[in-house]
Design brief:
By secondary structure, this protein is an alpha/beta fold. The chain has six helices and ten strands. α1 links the parallel β1 and β2. The site of flavin-adenine dinucleotide (FAD) has 28 residues, from α1 and β3.
Length: 177
């Protein structure tokens, strides 16, 4: 019997959560590693979805089996609202969404590591074999997905003051260094 591949997803924002769900549904063993104490990264701030062309996109994704979109729908506190630049938008509750996504992934069988910052990789010849995680054992795998997002480097607040997206990621509570 073929070996089940082990997929390591680094970064637990929407991108990483969706990648973890897709890999798990495709039959892989999946470990999702997030440096903060909560999943969803910058997705914990706005919560606007299904607006404009993304309504059709959401329906298509659901049709294709990406039921992580249904988790957003279940956590919606407003649907079909309109404000400048946004037509027929839904907004999810940023308080409800993280535990709901965590439960969804856990039920799929994704192993979630939070408070776990990836700081390096280890290679054998030219192949990555594991990620080095601060304050944790190294995590080995066959496939590695970088979903660490596009937010600024840690500790920007200490340099430029509060107000950047890093506050959403609460770097200061999860060690800015
Ligand atoms: C202020 C603001 C408001 C927004 N509002 C909306 C909105 O209303 N609707 C909308 O659709 N989009 C909104 N967006 C955009 C949306 O949030 C992002 O496009 C989306 O969440 C990005 O997801 P991501 O998974 O690619 O990255 P991120 O959300 O950045 O996730 C990356 C994750 O990787 C983790 N990570 C980084 N480095 C490491 C490491 N070394 N080890 C382990 N983990 C690591 C981070 O902690 C983070 O959780 C908003 C963005 C911002 C900044």
């Amino acid at each position: 019997m073929a070996k089940v591949p082990r997929v390591i997803v680094v970064g637990g924002g929407w991108g990483g959560c969706a990648a973890a769900a897709a890999a798990r549904k495709a039959g892989a063993e999946v470990v999702l590693i997030e440096r903060a104490d909560m999943l969803l990264g910058t997705g914990l701030v706005g919560g606007i979805f299904r607006n404009n062309g993304r309504f059709t996109a959401s329906e298509k994704m659901l049709e294709m089996g990406a039921d992580i979109f249904a988790v957003m729908d279940r956590c919606a506190i407003h649907t079909n609202v309109e404000f400048p630049g946004h037509k027929h938008a839904s907004l999810y509750s940023v308080y409800k969404i993280e535990p709901a996504v965590r439960e969804y992934l856990t039920n799929l069988g994704v192993r979630i590591l939070t408070n776990a910052r990836v700081i390096d990789v280890a290679k054998e010849k030219d192949k990555i074999v594991c990620v080095v995680v601060e304050k944790h054992e190294p995590v080995h795998g066959d496939v590695f997905v970088d979903a660490t997002g596009t937010s600024a480097v840690p500790a920007n607040c200490t340099k430029y003051g509060n107000g950047c997206a890093m506050c959403i990621l609460r770097c200061h509570t999860s060690d800015p260094e």
